[in-house]
Specification:
It is a single chain. The chain has a single domain, classed as Rhodanese-like domain (Oxidized Rhodanese, domain 1). The protein contains 5 helices and 8 strands, in the order H-E-H-E-E-H-E-H-E-H-E-E-E. The protein has 146 residues and is an alpha/beta fold. Strands 3-1-4-5 form a 4-stranded parallel sheet, sandwiched between helices. It has a two-stranded antiparallel ribbon with strand order 2-8. Strands 6-7 form a two-stranded antiparallel ribbon.
Length: 146
């Protein structure tokens, strides 16, 4: 599936679910630590960045952080999200610029914007992952702080 052929937001989530099911994908939360602590997808790695607009200096910092987190994992798929979709879109572009295949990098948008907000409200499972014992399945969904 070409990333250019994905035009409807609902398809982004389904495509991300496919990538995450492969167990070789990395799920990145591109928000502030405060936003992450308020709620995040179980299993997501926080790549902390400030609220938009990012500006050149902040984009360079985001590039450095993404490079550190992703290292030389160019063979892996990457799924990104943020609050409204802006930072996730910027992160997606940077990740592709770092040498990742465009078809393997997808932004599922923002947690407060449909369709992702609807997905979260419905308490849907984003993907299943192997538990620590290597056998049981763990449902990865959005966790809200209490």
């Amino acid at each position: 599936m070409s990333s250019l052929s994905i035009t409807r937001p609902e398809i982004y989530i389904n495509y991300a679910k496919e990538l995450l099911r492969s167990h070789d994908a990395i799920l990145l939360d591109i928000r502030t630590a405060k936003e992450y602590c308020a709620g995040h997808f179980d299993g997501a790695v926080l790549v902390e960045t400030s609220l938009p607009p990012l500006g050149l200096c902040k984009e360079m910092n985001l590039r450095v952080m993404l490079k550190r987190v992703l290292g030389n994992c160019h063979h892996r798929s990457v799924v990104v999200y943020c609050k409204k979709g802006v930072r996730a879109g910027i992160a997606r572009d940077i990740i592709i610029d770092l040498g990742f295949e465009p078809d393997n990098v997808v932004s599922i948008g923002g947690v407060v914007e449909p369709p992702l907000s609807d997905f979260i409200s419905a308490n849907k499972v984003l993907y299943y992952d192997r538990g620590c014992d290597g056998e049981s399945l763990v449902a990865r969904r959005f966790i809200k702080s209490q």
